[in-house]
């Protein structure tokens, strides 16, 4: 992640906060501060290949491109590695390979109780993990292809 300052927050005192220069912020501050001085910007996506309808993510990465096994069209039913409140964005790695995200076959619940085909590299799917349900819940999609 790349962090960029929000000018109106730098060196401004808020209730219960000490003034501090932007350079002194730690990862802990950025993650837990209700009034962040920085906004997170998405970086290059992490490429993942689906194996047996499953991918494993890393909680520190939030943006992924998906490829099918052996470069063929594939289904995605399960995402391993979620932690409560984690939001991720998925998209297909290319136009030539359709990735079908399956509704409630594994641990993914999609809007409208329907599967979603990532059939263009312009298509995106945004999910949030709920540890109580042990499920990824859809919060947005872009069928842009």
Structure description:
With 145 residues, the chain is mostly beta strands. The chain has 2 domains: 2-41, no CATH class; 46-142, Jelly Rolls (Sandwich), CATH 2.60.120. 4% of the residues lie in helices and 38% in strands. The chain is built from 1 helix and 13 strands. It has one helix spanning 27-32, and strands at residues 2-5, 38-41, 46-49, 54-56, 63-67, 74-76, 78-80, 87-92, 99-101, 108-109, 116-118, 124-130, 135-142. A 6-stranded mixed sheet has the order 3-5-8-12-13-10, with no helix packed on it. It starts with a strand and ends with a strand.
Q: Which descriptor suits the 3D outline?
A: globular
Quote the CATH topology of the largest domain. Jelly Rolls
Oligomerization state = single chain
CA radius of gyration is 18 Å
Cα-to-Cα separation, first versus last residue: 27 Å
Number of domains: 2
Give a topology summary.
Layout: E1 2-5, H1 27-32, E2 38-41, E3 46-49, E4 54-56, E5 63-67, E6 74-76, E7 78-80, E8 87-92, E9 99-101, E10 108-109, E11 116-118, E12 124-130, E13 135-142
Parallel strand pairs: 3-5, 4-7, 5-8, 6-9, 10-13
Antiparallel strand pairs: 1-2, 8-12, 9-11, 12-13
């Amino acid at each position: 992640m790349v962090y960029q300052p929000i000018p109106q927050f730098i060196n401004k005192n808020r209730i219960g906060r000490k003034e501090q220069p932007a350079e002194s912020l730690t990862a802990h501050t950025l993650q837990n501060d209700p009034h962040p001085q920085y906004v997170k910007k998405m970086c290059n996506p992490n490429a993942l290949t689906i194996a047996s309808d499953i991918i494993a993510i890393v909680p520190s990465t939030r943006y992924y491109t998906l490829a099918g096994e052996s470069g063929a069209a594939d289904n995605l039913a399960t995402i391993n590695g979620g932690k409560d409140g984690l939001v991720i964005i998925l998209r297909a790695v290319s136009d030539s390979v359709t990735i079908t995200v399956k509704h409630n076959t594994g641990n993914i619940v999609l809007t409208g109780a329907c599967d979603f085909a990532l059939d263009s590299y312009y298509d995106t799917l945004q999910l949030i993990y709920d540890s109580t349900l042990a499920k990824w819940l859809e919060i947005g999609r872009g069928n842009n292809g």
